[in-house]
Amino acid sequence: MINRSALDPDDHARPPGAPAPLTGLKVIDTATLFAGPFAATLLGDYGADVVKIEHPDGDPARRYGAQADGVPVWWKVVARNKRSATLDLHTDEGQRLFRRLAADADLIVENFRPGTLERWGLDYATLSADNPRLVLLRMTGFGQTGPYAHRPGFGTIGEAMSGLAHLTGTPDGPPTLPSFPLADAVAGLTAAFAALTALRARELTGRGQVVDLSIVESMLGVLGGPLATYDLTGVMPTRQGNRSPNNAPRNVYRTKDDHWVAVSATTLSVAERVVRLVGRPELAEEPWFATGAGRARHTEELDTAVGGWIAERTRDEVVERFEQAQAAIGPVYDLADVLADPHFAARGSIISVPDPELDAIRMPGVAFRLSDTPGAVHSAGPRLGQHTADVLGELGLKAEDLSALAAKGVI
Prior knowledge:
Layout: E1 26-29, H1 35-45, E2 49-54, E3 67-68, E4 71-72, H2 73-78, E5 82-86, H3 92-102, E6 107-110, H4 116-119, H5 124-130, E7 135-140, H6 155-161, H7 164-167, H8 182-205, E8 210-214, H9 215-222, H10 224-233, E9 250-254, E10 260-264, H11 268-277, H12 292-297, H13 299-311, H14 315-324, E11 329-331, H15 335-340, H16 342-347, E12 350-355, E13 359-364, H17 388-393, H18 399-408
Parallel strand pairs: 1-2, 1-6, 2-5, 6-7, 7-8
Antiparallel strand pairs: 3-4, 9-10, 10-11, 12-13
Helix pairs in contact: 1-8, 6-9, 8-9
């Protein structure tokens, strides 16, 4: 095990006396794996009391990905700032206790297949009868309605059916899927916004509502430009590798010391700086250079000029020269580079969170910074059922009640 006792100081804590912006918001997170739980994580980062309801066997995220000293790493990140309570919702007693928890909640996050909550007697009509201000955030692959509603849908399916995979990869290669849960992250970000929108509407109407969020539709939302372009022009976008059909130079280039850098010249002024820097100022005088589409048609010529210049220099030299020229560049980092980057360290982009099982764990900090009411990470993902006694104790259950429920397998 890596000794993390000397990691970066605890710079993720909220300043003394600063309020958490979502203090007082109670969230019940019953979702599994990543899209729904990520939405709840974002809310917890800014002060919401997030109660993670897990089956007594544990959330599937506890068994996903790598482990460190037998501890699930992904779980520690996606379940940060949450309390873990176990409850078997397949049982009558589990459903009864869940209804009691929902009666005092502001938001429930769930991603069961459509009809599951209804089958358990936990539909919105039932829950809102006791709590009219409740917001129910329902996250599925395809939404609650439509011919695909009952299909299982993970992030990978959203990446495929939204058109993302079709647009990703090399021109002569197959469609490419990301190696991490990109669609889940996009859906989680969308869901956090949706939840806060519904809670804001509650302030205006006095009542809660149901949020129907689809992973596929979340991905469609970020691919609107290519979709509308095809609809209006009939031109089907194709895979471009690391290039762009709208601009050039835009690519990744290998350096002399066998690293990679990414160059993006989206605007004319930046493109001019790049070709001057690499010793080809005459390219900027060409008529085609004046527009992004024109430069994209001459990608080969621009890539040869930029790539050839970069190949003769080290990564550090290339980045320094581009910065001096005020041209956009970024080194292609691996995760070791991310953890060592001085800018990320200075901003607290990567934080070290104390943890009783791992000593400490480094993970991304809060998603954004608020000047007066900042977010904070105060704990990594909890042990299974670590807070069951606390959560159910808030309903008035005593130790003997918990023992009886455990004997029945309800918790």
